[in-house]
Design a protein that fits this description.
309 residues, 13 strands, alpha/beta, four-stranded antiparallel beta sheet, globular, 2 domains, Rossmann fold
């Protein structure tokens, strides 16, 4: 079912005067995962109240914004709108300073999860895609003895990361060329949903990993999100071009040439983490058709049935 945005939240968001509809946008014509062209419009607004439409691929069930903002528009969005918008939504200040306490807790929790797999693996270099303030990468660097490099599109957050002694690159990973550089450990934490090309990025990460390398990636499970809120609209937002489920991320990883070695449900019950090593790409894999049909059936049920008591 749709939910009504509380008036106080509406007021805070309105004060930002961000005109989403006026931003340069591009229409998606085919699925980023399976390249299907039959796209089903699921929603027509997001949790902020913006006229953002989410669509799903009829063949594999991948959900994404369509249309979505262009890469330059997203760069401007992350440069000055993203954190104020999230702050307005939650009614408290969330910026490059205040977010760090939550990031420290997250880093400690994820480091403990991957420790049995990384200790003694001989890893030396790390790339953090969407590394924000560098808290997570900095913690991993200390615990596992890694040399860290961070990529993030938000200048204020990159500035914080630089103070931790990490190499920093400001920008979108899809637009960067790393040349011949390779990394032993790549992390994409609380970031993959923000990417503009999930398939292309994962394929590039596979190329960037050394033979002994490992990938840590997590998703906000779209299905968990709309069931928690009992609202598909409240599970979508303009800052997430993609909405992944366990079925779609696992297909993405196998297509890109990753073998999943460990899966972990985070304590917030929304995020799911995957630890992977390089494997052989399986180009044609996609979610089971029955699972895709069940996703559409469940979305329609949530959109129309009263929330269970």
């Amino acid at each position: 079912m749709q939910t009504t945005i509380p008036p106080d939240r509406q007021g805070r968001i309105a004060e930002l005067a961000y005109d989403y509809a006026a931003q340069p946008q591009e229409r998606v014509t085919h699925c980023n995962l399976c390249h299907g062209t039959v796209l089903v419009a699921l929603t027509h607004r997001d949790r902020y109240g913006y006229p953002a439409q989410a669509a799903a691929c009829a063949r594999c069930g991948l959900v994404f914004l369509n249309p979505r903002m262009t890469a330059p528009a997203y760069s401007r969005f992350y440069d000055g709108v993203y954190r104020p918008l999230v702050s307005a939504f939650h009614g408290r200040l969330i910026d490059a300073q205040t977010i760090q306490a939550e990031q420290r807790d997250y880093a400690a929790d994820r480091a403990a999860m991957i420790q049995p797999f990384l200790r003694g693996a001989g890893l030396r270099t790390m790339l953090d895609i969407g590394g924000s303030t560098g808290v997570v990468a900095g913690h991993f660097a200390r615990v596992f003895g890694l040399e860290g490099t961070i990529v993030d599109p938000a200048p204020l957050e990159i500035e914080q990361a630089r103070t931790l002694g990490l190499e920093t690159i400001t920008g979108l990973v899809e637009e960067l060329d790393f040349g011949a550089r390779r990394f032993d450990f790549v992390i994409i934490c609380q970031t993959v949903d923000h990417l503009l090309d999930v398939g292309g990025t994962l394929a590039r990460v596979r190329e960037l990993l050394t033979e002994r390398g490992q990938l840590l990636i997590d998703i906000v499970d779209f299905r968990a999100a709309y069931l928690r809120h009992w609202s598909v609209e409240d599970a979508t937002k303009i800052d997430h071009p993609y909405y992944l489920t366990q079925n779609t991320i696992e297909a993405y990883l196998r297509r890109a040439g990753f073998t999943i070695t460990h899966v972990d449900y985070a304590v917030d019950h929304l995020h799911v983490s995957y630890l992977c090593r390089p494997g052989t790409p399986v180009p044609d894999v996609r979610p089971d058709p029955h699972a895709v049909r069940e996703l559409f059936r469940e979305v329609r049920f949530v959109q129309n049935a009263p929330r269970p008591r």
